[in-house]
Structure formats: structure tokens, C-alpha cells
Design a protein that fits this description.
Blueprint: E1 5-7, E2 10-12, H1 49-65, H2 69-77, H3 81-92, H4 108-157
Antiparallel strand pairs: 1-2
Length: 158
């Protein structure tokens, strides 16, 4: 009968060296199933217009210095020179402004056309309302007339 080896008061399985697996031996199956490594997902940086404008100002001031200061700054920020050139083109074309993204404001002509359409719809709704009120008034009068007529028939028959 094989007696397990005792190391610091704990039983050690046969084929291990003080709790370690000898090289070339079978791997332990208990801990190998779970992988504790977390896989990082790459996310694309979203640079704000304010940041781009700040970079453009800094690059403009560094160009005066020369001696590779622009390249060192871009490496530090993790940016490409082609991106900075693109931002400069956008800024000169007036496309790089601090306005927020989203739906654009309507032009004056579009607002006037919408206003005209809404006024027309309001007028149509008012006309339908007037006709409906007229019909309701007629129904009330007819109902009153019918009640009077039926009351006359009942009193005349009795």
C-alpha cells in the first residue's frame, strides 16, 4: 500500500514535487478549464471638435519651433499627421466648428411653408367643427320635436 507523502502537514499526491507538477507530467484538469485572462475589445476613439481645435492650435505653435516638435507631440497624443492635415482642411473649409451634431435648423422658407400648411389644416379643422356643431344642434332640435310630437300623440290617443 502506498502512503501519501506529507509536506507541512498536508498530503501530497504521488507524482508531484511538493505541490508542483513535474515538467513533462500530465497537466491538472481542475484549473485548466477556466481562463482568467480578460480579452480587451478595441474601441475606436471619438475625438471631439474641441480636442481637434486644441491639437490644431498646438501644432501651429510647434511648427514655429521646428526640430521635430510636431512629430514628438503627435506621437505623444497617438495621432497621425494625415489626420491633422485633414482637420486643417476641414477648418479652412468651415466644416470644423464647435456646433453640435444632429438635425440642422430649418431655413426660413421651410418654416414659412410649414406655417402655411399648418394654418390651412387649422382652417379645415375649424370648418369641420362648425359643420359638426350645426349637425349636433339640428339633432337636438329634431329630438325635441320628436319628443313633443310623440307626447302629443300619446295625449291625443288617451
Amino acid at each position: 500500500m502506498m502512503v501519501p507523502k506529507m509536506v507541512l502537514g498536508q498530503a501530497v499526491a504521488a507524482g508531484t514535487e511538493g505541490g508542483r507538477r513535474p515538467s513533462g507530467g500530465p497537466a491538472a484538469t481542475a484549473g485548466a478549464a477556466s481562463d482568467p485572462e480578460v480579452v480587451a475589445r478595441a474601441t475606436r476613439r471619438r475625438l471631439t471638435v474641441g480636442y481637434k481645435l486644441k491639437v490644431l492650435d498646438t501644432v501651429a505653435s510647434l511648427r514655429e519651433r521646428g526640430n521635430g516638435a510636431v512629430g514628438a507631440y503627435l506621437r505623444k497624443e497617438g495621432l497621425y499627421y494625415s489626420s491633422v492635415k485633414k482637420w486643417e482642411r476641414q477648418q479652412s473649409a468651415g466644416q470644423l466648428t464647435s456646433q453640435s451634431r444632429g438635425p440642422r435648423e430649418k431655413s426660413r422658407e421651410a418654416l414659412l411653408a410649414e406655417n402655411k400648411q399648418l394654418r390651412r389644416q387649422l382652417e379645415q379643422a375649424k370648418n369641420r367643427l362648425a359643420k359638426t356643431e350645426l349637425i349636433v344642434d339640428l339633432q337636438k332640435k329634431l329630438s325635441t320635436l320628436m319628443e313633443t310630437h310623440s307626447a302629443d300623440e300619446m295625449s291625443g290617443a288617451g
